[in-house]
Structure formats: structure tokens, C-alpha cells
Design brief:
This protein has two domains: 17-256, Aspartate Aminotransferase, domain 2 (3-Layer(aba) Sandwich); 259-358, Aspartate Aminotransferase, domain 1 (Alpha-Beta Complex), CATH 3.90.1150. With 360 residues, the protein is of the alpha/beta class. The protein has helices at residues 16-25, 44-61, 75-87, 100-109, 226-231, 241-257, 259-280, 305-317, 342-358; strands spanning 5-6, 67-72, 92-97, 114-120, 144-147, 149-150, 155-156, 168-171, 188-192, 203-208, 285-286, 297-301, 320-321, 332-335. Strand 6 and strand 7 (155-156) form a beta hairpin. Helix 1 (16-25) packs across helix 6 (241-257), helix 3 (75-87) packs across helix 4 (100-109) and helix 7 runs parallel beside helix 9 (342-358). It contains nine helices and 14 strands. The chain binds pyridoxal-5'-phosphate.
Length: 360
């Protein structure tokens, strides 16, 4: 068996311990004679898996009792529709557009109400986070929306926007469980798990109970109503059982490492190794303003598209996979999620140094 260093933005690297455990349990999950993939979602065995996953997530993120945790499907992209459908009472929402995912969420929300783009960083290719201390928040806005960590551009909100009392809603797909987060500052948090938490096919929605409504417009599909999902313990229909099981394992892995403070320290250490090198290199440059740099996604360029392509190709041959930047921005991007070991980043930097010497 030979494993690469996988810098994919998502689906992405998972902890080897977790994969091995899943492998051990594949044929016979804890003596029940079948795989979790083959198990009824109505069985006591699966109920225990989902209950434990939720309990561990609540403990890790310190989620208060008045928030529901929902395991749903359809990608973060389907939540771009579910959020306005469920949260718009006045039919108004304010969006802060800091990248492609926020832009898509904004476009989708427009189908359901009056949606305002109250700030954007598109003027400089989303390389920064706009000042959100005093934005023109709409008086009747049902919520203010952000994408917390911008997976493609490599920026993150270090400071939350001043929403002037409106509910804050955040897409945390690519920074889920990467560091502590104060859940009480948000009305709703959502994220696809395939960046930092598990396999694709599961989204987690954490929503304050009083925002879950019964009086939704008739057009809202039953499956997209948070009320449906909450009332049925995420099992109105068959949930993504195996994915939830894998997420549960990752939650335990993080707990065993010391929780989100430990995760943050681990992620800061890794990011510093890469950013320090980028700041000292004559060939490679980070593309984001320093004060908004993400711990998770690190885009960089050489300034020469041919040299970028050569780098990606040679890196791949040396066992560093998925370093090509997003198709909309080019260059390179190293996603260094929770499960990327420090030595993966150290070896990548050593490889970049060697490449720089050879191609100077
Ligand atoms: C990947 C990603 C998405 C899209 O997720 P899907 O599960 O493919 O719909 C949305 N938001 C962010 C921040 C992402 O990183």
C-alpha cells in the first residue's frame, strides 16, 4: 500500500486511523455480521451510530441545547436554497460575497426573495475580506449570510461581521472543526463534510430552534424543511448512513487528539510552515492579503502559467497530489485540512525549495 500526500480541496484527505478502523469494521460491524452500509437505518445499531455522532459533535463544538443538529443530503449547494426557503419570513436577506461559493449562494437565494449584496471583494479577485464593521444591513433582513472560509480563494473571516442584531448564517464547509467556533453567534451554520469531516454526501446543519418554522411556503419540498428533518431526527427518509458513520469516527478522532483547541494548534503549525516559506520564496507567492489568510486552503502562484503547470506535474510525480488551483483561478492550491499531517506540509515545502533551486 502506498498513500500519497493529498492536498485536494474536497473530497479530501481523511485520517488514516479512521480509514483503518472503517476497514476493520467493513465486513462485520461489531459482531452484527454486516457492514454499516448494509444496515437498516431504523435498526438500534444505526440509531446508536447517529446518536453518538451527534453527541460527539455537540461536545466538540459546544453546541447549546437550543440548537438542532441535522444530517442532510444534497450538498452544501442545496442548502443555498434551503436557507432562504426556511429562514425568509420577510423575504429579505443580506449577503456578503467573498468568493465563488458565496456568489452561488447569493444567486440561489435571489430565487426566493429580495436579496442584497451588501459587501464584496470581487474587485480584487476575492483576495481579501471586506470591512464588515458597519455595513448597510437591511432593516427587515431575515439574516446576513457569509461563507466563513473561502475554499477557492484561501481567505477566512477572522472577525465576524457586525450584523446589527440580525441573524448570522454561515457556510463553514471548508473550516468545519478546524478550530473552536462560538455557535451562539450564529442562527445557522451549515457545511458539506467532504472538506474536513468525512466523505461527500452528508451536510450538517446546526440551527437554532426558534428559526425552525412550520409556516413555510407551499412550494418548499418536504425534504428541505428543517422542521421535517428536526422532527424526524434526520431520518424522514434514508439518511446517508455510511457517511454519518464516517463523520462519527472523525469526531472521535478529533476528541482523542484533544478537541478543537488542539486541532487549531495543529492547523496553525502546518499553515505557518507553508506561509513562512511563501513569504521567503522568490519564486512562489501567496495570492491572499496576509491578514485574511485561511488555515485550510493556501493558494499560490509562480507568476508564470507554464512554470505552474510544470510544478503541478512534477509534484504529482513526487507523491503530492491535487495541487492544481481551482479552474477559475489557476495557479496552485494546497488544502491542508485537519487530516493532513505536519510531515506532509514539511515535505511539500522541501519539494518547493528544491523546485525553486532547479528552476531559478
Ligand atoms: C465545496 C464547497 C461548497 C459546495 O459543496 P457541495 O457539497 O459540492 O455542494 C460550498 N461551500 C463551500 C465553502 C465549499 O467549500
Amino acid at each position: 500500500m502506498s498513500r500519497v500526500y493529498n492536498f485536494s480541496a474536497g473530497p479530501a484527505v481523511l485520517p488514516e486511523e479512521v480509514l483503518k478502523e472503517a476497514q476493520e469494521e467493513m465486513m462485520d460491524y461489531r459482531g452484527c455480521g454486516m457492514s454499516v452500509m448494509e444496515m437498516s437505518h431504523r435498526s438500534a445499531m444505526f440509531q446508536q451510530i447517529i446518536d453518538e455522532a451527534e453527541a460527539d459533535l455537540r461536545e466538540l463544538m459546544n453546541i447549546p441545547d437550543n440548537y438542532k443538529v441535522l444530517f442532510v443530503q444534497g450538498g452544501a449547494a442545496l442548502q443555498f436554497a434551503a436557507i432562504p426557503m426556511n429562514l425568509m419570513k420577510n423575504g429579505v436577506a443580506d449577503y456578503i460575497v467573498t468568493g465563488l461559493w458565496a456568489k452561488k449562494a447569493f444567486a440561489e437565494a435571489k430565487k426566493y426573495g429580495k436579496v442584497n449584496k451588501i459587501a464584496t471583494s470581487e474587485d480584487e479577485t476575492f483576495s481579501y475580506i471586506p470591512d464588515c464593521s458597519d455595513l448597510p444591513i437591511s432593516e427587515d433582513a431575515d439574516y446576513v449570510y457569509i461563507c466563513m472560509n473561502n475554499t477557492i480563494y484561501g481567505t477566512v473571516f477572522h472577525e465576524l461581521p457586525n450584523t446589527k442584531g440580525k441573524e448570522l448564517v454561515a457556510d463553514i464547509s471548508s473550516c468545519f472543526l478546524s478550530e473552536p467556533l462560538d455557535v451562539t453567534k450564529f442562527g445557522l451554520l451549515m457545511g458539506g463534510v467532504q472538506k474536513n469531516v468525512g466523505p461527500s454526501g452528508v451536510q450538517i446543519v446546526i440551527v437554532r430552534e426558534d428559526l425552525i418554522r412550520e409556516d413555510l411556503p407551499d412550494y418548499v419540498p418536504t425534504m428541505l424543511s428543517y422542521k421535517t428533518q428536526a422532527d424526524n431526527g434526520s431520518m424522514y427518509n434514508t439518511p446517508p448512513c455510511y457517511g454519518i458513520y464516517m463523520c462519527g469516527k472523525v469526531f472521535k478522532w478529533i476528541k482523542n487528539l484533544g478537541g478543537l483547541e488542539a486541532m487549531k494548534a495543529h492547523n496553525e503549525k502546518k499553515a505557518a510552515i507553508l506561509y513562512d516559506f511563501l513569504d521567503s520564496s522568490k519564486m512562489f507567492k501567496g495570492t491572499v492579503r496576509k491578514e485574511y489568510r485561511s488555515l485550510m486552503n493556501v493558494p499560490f502562484v509562480t507568476g508564470d502559467a507554464d512554470l505552474d503547470a510544470k510544478f503541478v506535474k512534477e509534484a504529482k510525480a513526487a507523491g503530492f497530489e491535487n495541487l492544481k488551483g481551482h479552474r477559475t483561478v489557476g495557479g496552485m492550491r494546497a488544502s491542508i485540512y485537519n487530516a493532513m499531517p505536519i510531515e506532509g506540509v514539511e515535505k511539500l515545502v522541501a519539494f518547493m525549495k528544491k523546485f525553486e533551486e532547479e528552476n531559478a
